[in-house]
Amino acid sequence: MTVLLFGPPGSGKGTQAKDLAARLRVPHVATGDIFRRHLKEGTELGARAKAYMQGGGLVPDAFTCEIVASRLEEPDAAKGVLLDGFPRTAAQAEWLLAWLSARGRRVDGVINLVVPDEAIVKRLTGRRSCPSCGATFHVEFAPANGEQCSRCGTPVIQRDDDKPEVVRTRLETYARETLPVLPVLRPVAPVHDIAGTGDVAEIRARVFAALGLN
Ligand code: AMP
Asked: What is the pTM (predicted TM-score) of this model?
């Protein structure tokens, strides 16, 4: 099964992705995570993506599609994948549909997490991440910047792209570049619009129900 998780930055795609990928028994492929890993490891790819990411813009399509193609060609993704944060432009969506169709595959479902802008700004600017194990937290619930990760003990940080001015740019980028993905997908795949507000477990139940999973 090939499923796409769609929604603005901070809509909870990453949180929902973990459970959903496990339930679908497909790999979770998040382009943001791939880019961040390259950035952290100091690869050439990371260096190319860095300026776009830190400014809140998008990494160019050709480069992003190349990275996704090489991930999708790995054996564990042969029967399906949960894509998180991709496609993020109409051109990426067209590319993905063509790539899948050339292999006799299609998009089986799209989960569109809908969250109002004000809720997103609050979530993202309060988000802290552990640079070591990748756990994420919200300052309202601790730990705060510089305090220790409750999972592995490393001091948590605020991602550069979760700073308020960058969050605003990311939301503008989403509205301008990413929303146009939906009209490309709607005619060819079931798109489920799901309220991404409320309790994580409630949202998960809505997502699973939309895909007919129990
Ligand atoms: P995310 O963690 O999904 O919010 O991604 C972090 C950053 O990585 C984004 O703000 C973009 O700069 C870049 N990025 C992630 N996915 C894509 C994509 N599909 N196309 C272009 N840039 C992306």
From this structure: 0.89
